[in-house]
Amino acid sequence: MGEIEGTYRVLQTPGSRLGVQKNSGVSTLEPGQNLSTAMASSPARTHERDLQIKIKMLDNTVEVLDIETTMLRLAVKFFPPDPGQLQEEYTRYLFALQIKRDLAEERLTCSDNTAALLVSHLLQSEIGDFDESEDREHLKVNRYLPNQERIQGKILEFHRKHIQYIENIFSLCFHSIFWFSSPPGLPVDHSQLSSLVLKSPLGLNPAFPVNLNAAGQGSSPLLSPVLSDAGGARIEEEDEMKRKRYPTDKAYFIAKEILATERTYLKDLEVITVWFRSAVIKENAMPEGLMTLLFSNIDPIYEFHRGFLKEIEQRLSLWEGRTNAHVKGDYQRIGDVMLRNMRTLKEFTSYLQKHDEVLTELEKATKRLKKLEMVYKEFELQKVCYLPLNTFLLKPIQRLMHYKLILGRLCKHYTAEHRDFADCRNALKEVTEMTSQLQHSLIRLENFQKLTELQHDLIGIDNLTAPGREFIREGCLYKLTKKGLQQRMFFLFSDMLLYTSKGVTGTNQFKIHGHLPLHGMLVEESENEWAVPHCFTIYSAQKTIVVAASTRLEMGKWMEDLNMAIEMAKKSTEKSDIFLKPLPNSPPPGSSDEVSLEQESEDDIHSSRSSLDRQSHHRANTTMHVCWYRNTSVSMADHSVAVENQLSGYLLRKFKNSNGWQKLWVVFTNFCLFFYKTHQDDYPLASLPLLGYVVSSPVEADGIQKDYVFKLQFKSHVYFFRAESKYTFERWMEVIKRATSSPARSSLLLPKDEKDRHTD
């Protein structure tokens, strides 16, 4: 085999790239000896030479220690070829130092943008968050790149985007090292480690990969949106140590919940104030009047909450004793911060009252202006817009409800004598006054938002947001057709019942097959007549249809809501045209005394009305699509309960095939868990819709030997999540249980006077 021609170079060792001197040693062989002869001829005692250790003290004096008959243990450390797979913080630290040296010596081949980004991380590790004057002064003294002056502007621009990295360092646990006499991979005792804590790494660790479709599972996009098991496995011991360092008072964890949910809320506001603004400005798609109406109402709220979040972060830092430890006793409370900001927030009530107008005008403009409609739809496809866009416009009012609930929880926790009780009680009074003013507006806005969301997702109806119409329930039922039972999505409103099928083309929209007015409708159970489980018949003036639910519970929900809606329709004194106006593409009405067995047409099968002007790849985690895949339903009352049960925070997710746990930032909203690597990420890495899931504590057979773990299960799909405290564990169990179990009745169908009493 011949040699391969070419140019060869000697690769540098990691030590030489870090600036370490070349390896050298002192020979213990006598002149003329080699290693083999020395080993054969020397007595055994020769191998037990005394070991001499020199220790250089801080005053530069040197002490020599003689250690006799010492056995040295060799620890061999293997490094993966991909730096992104480095797990231990010390090896990441060495890798970061190597990057730093390679940048300075122009050994790292990369673009100017990449070099500037790397240097910005180095700046962040040296001086913390962005400060232009401090940055420029530091760059004058320290040279990270040969051409540093030329790209200094880019370096500063990148550093400006790194927010609160130093705050995160406080939450990092001690970095594990192992003794030569210990097996690699096991952390040393905490008391030993305290004197050996290494400086935090530079934070250059790459993002871990994400797997949204685990192998071996079904094709449904809802069944396997789980993060990869790669990365983040070695955190159990660190998490235990962190738990020991921080306060354990319940009030502290309630304050942490305020902080976590406030971070998520601010990110939600940025979807409108930063990302959507950028999209419409770039395309010049929004009229100036609408721009002013939208952003003049939400920008002041956003700026207020930015300052509010900083106050909460500072208070939690003091509470945890990370700074000013000598005065921390005066700061182990949150009521004064809440009271001060709730009083300030009252000044923004006028802005919140205009959100009704903002939503209405935005919807009108998107119908009227094709360019704005296109920008709107394209923006909803972006990762950062993880919910329907107009959902984010409801967040400011919904956030007030969260403040009310969490302040009520604090007041229940404190005794009347506690120094924080009075402030919490007064803050609760302030926010209760605001929510009372905005409660009816919120109900109206949530209904309008849901109608517009359905308007975008349904093909064959253009007047869904007609005045007076209220959404009641959506979900999957099986309709009896000439081909047997066929899956359909049903939508119940205060005046009519729609049924649709899901398109099989590129669009995930649902096409309307028919609509039934509620006036004159009758619903009765018909299991015996049709010999179909959970079956009931719907009689209307136009036609009669037979449907079946997936469970008896689902059948009960539909029949209860249908009967209540029918009763309310009977009491209605006005019969608006919207009740009887035919919808496009509706099948012709059949005889009222015979059951209509729907014929599957070619149009149904191929979904030819893909509607190119309305084509949109909608998310599979909207409630409409989740109900379709999970054979369930959701009412407007469920949506209202879900709004009250939103939660954010760090959780540990158990890997499927190992005992490791992965730390993730988790947001629970709209019946769905959204997973992020950190709270600073702009968009989720994956999501897990929870409709149909059951939350419980692990049983012995699950083999979970940790505290504060809850289990999520849907059929064969099982996930384990671990909280940091008893309070946090109970909160996650509570919000998931409440949001995924339906209320007994829908208050939206009560008469107006009863509804007023209910909401008050």
UniProtKB/TrEMBL annotation:
Coiled coil: 352-382
Limits of the FERM domain: 1-305
Segments for region (Disordered): 23-43, 578-618
PH domain sequence ranges: 470-567, 644-741
A Pfam family: RhoGEF
GO molecular function: guanyl-nucleotide exchange factor activity
Basic and acidic residues composition bias: residue spans: 604-615
Name of the molecule in the record: FERM, ARH/RhoGEF and pleckstrin domain protein 2
SMART domains documented for this protein: B41, PH, RhoGEF
Organism domain of life: Eukaryota
Residue span, DH domain: 250-441
Record InterPro entries: Band_41_domain, DBL_dom_sf, DH_dom, FERM/acyl-CoA-bd_prot_sf, FERM_2, FERM_central, FERM_domain, PH-like_dom_sf
Keyword Metal-binding: no
Keywords, alphabetical: Coiled coil, Phosphoprotein
Keyword Coiled coil attached: yes
